Amino acid sequence: MGVNSYLAHAPGYVDNEGPKIVTGRFVHEDSHTLARSLATGGYDGLKRALEQSPTSIHDIVRDATLLGRGGAGFPAGVKWGFCPPGVWPRYLVVNGDESEPGTYKDRLLMQRDPHQLIEGSLIACYALGLSQCFLYVRGEMALAQERIAIALNEAYDAGLVGTNILGTDLSVDIVLHWGAGAYIVGEETALIESLEGNRGMPRLKPPFFPAAIGLYGKPTIVNNVETLANLPWIINNGAAAYKAFGSETSPGTRMFAVSGHVKRPGVYEVEHGTTTFRELLYGDNYCQGIRAGHELKMFIPGGGSAPWFFPEQLDLPLEARPVGAAGSMLGSGAIVVMDETTDAVKACLRVVRFFARESCGKCTPCREGTSWEETILQRIHDGLGRPGDIDMLLDIADNISPGPYPTAADEANGLDAVPFPPKQTTICPLGPSSVAPITSAIRRFRHEFEAKITARELIPVEATGP
What we know:
Layout: H1 3-9, H2 34-39, H3 44-50, H4 54-64, H5 76-80, E1 91-96, H6 105-112, H7 114-128, E2 132-137, H8 142-157, E3 173-178, H9 188-195, E4 220-224, H10 225-229, H11 231-237, H12 239-243, E5 253-260, E6 266-271, H13 277-282, E7 296-300, H14 320-325, E8 334-339, H15 344-358, H16 364-381, H17 389-400, H18 408-412, H19 430-457, H20 461-464
Parallel strand pairs: 1-2, 1-4, 2-3, 5-8
Antiparallel strand pairs: 5-6, 7-8
Helix pairs in contact: 3-7, 3-11, 4-7, 6-7, 6-8, 15-16, 15-19, 16-17, 16-19, 17-19
């Protein structure tokens, strides 16, 4: 099977029923080519945009309530308005450094429909009145880099990118930049540091909000891949048509990457804000339930950095506000499902180890605390835990991301869930991301931690060594 045929049928994308705003071309094996893009309406949105004023395009995007798809969920049209007037040059940076554990939707968009991303970037550039765009792609995504590079060459040759696009006064240069594989560069200010040739570390905000002081000290809008991929459809069909899908506060569709213990894992495009976790995980049109007839134990609703959810949260809609009110986040659109056979301590360790290894080291609580968390969790997992280890973990967590963190019994008595968004003693959320699995697992499965520690106490001292 050739690479194109494989990609068209790979388990990464599931062609379920429902509206297709950003994955409509995925059914074609040559969806990444300019020929297929043009044959299926590619760049029509750009043509329509160029027939209107930049202000009109900005208004359409704002009216559509297009929420960011990178994690924060901030409205794109509002974010665009933060650029200070009269300050030039200004830049658009496309965040393709998809690095959150469990997330692979943006990778598919870049691999399968790079021209849609290029078109969306051009529409944003036109609305913002800028002429320079940087497309930052994660270092490990070799196929996505290759597909985008080829697509850019095709677009330049066709007069769709470059000087006097489609015979108009619009001129935009798009630069493809490959990252080096650092998780932290998914944070927008760290990404800007990397683009400038520096080590990827986050900047303080304020004063360095990118829209005011960003790349090279100039106003910079950083948008996610999926966010920009929505723009061609919105411009072609209008804000009202977009808002006909999804909920009133979260219109349109959204891509979710579901992995773990479900019968049919993959990436799904679903209506935003109306589909529930239960429908997505158990629906015949989606993941079709938990593998091998097992029961759901817990799931991570928004990538590795999100606090865990449990069966009682299954009926929450896939919408930021109710999920946030319940103590977690939709984040980057990655849902990791774990069934009853999962060792909660081991699952916690795996996530914390990732964040400990990916800490950039700039902030002391994160640099030191994440390593301490990993060491203690590894000790517990290996059966060498100490009686005070659980409380020590919670104390370290509280120093990185101040609580309080209620127990499961507290929540049963009506007390609030884990505070969200989390407080932090670090510049960026990486440190608190390591806290999320610890507080989630201990709150719900403290008995599993205690069982491993108690088991150690039953081992003869001479068998454990000094």
